[in-house]
Amino acid sequence: MADDLSLIQQVLARYANALDELDFDALASVFTPDARASYGGGPWLEGVAAIVEYVSPLRSFAASFHLMGNMQIDVDGDRARATTRSLTHLIASDGVLHARALRYRDQLVRTSDGWRISERVHTAQWMWEGTAHVFDAGGE
Fold this sequence. Notes:
Blueprint: H1 2-20, H2 24-28, E1 31-39, E2 45-46, H3 48-55, E3 63-76, E4 79-91, E5 96-111, E6 114-131
Parallel strand pairs: 1-6
Antiparallel strand pairs: 1-2, 3-4, 4-5, 5-6
């Protein structure tokens, strides 16, 4: 059970890192091929390709940072449910910072490749806008 919790936490962290690194292959790897997701109350996106396409406009931002925390995970055999809070910062190319508090409600399944998200509901809880400066991290 403890191993499952750790493995599921890694899946959720890989999702955030893939978004921030614009690694859409890595992003696809955290979902089942037939996964479905709803972002911000929008229509259901059916299949991993639709989910990746939906989030791909992140490329237009100068930077993003998804900090995942407060994970509550309940495992039942080869299925699990997770609720995760995220503090997300998106910095537009003009320097406008969009800070958002998000809640993810996920259903996960154990596959032959490990735990994967089969369903995700993303809800924005609040947003703040201001200005920001992006430092050159030298590719790190």
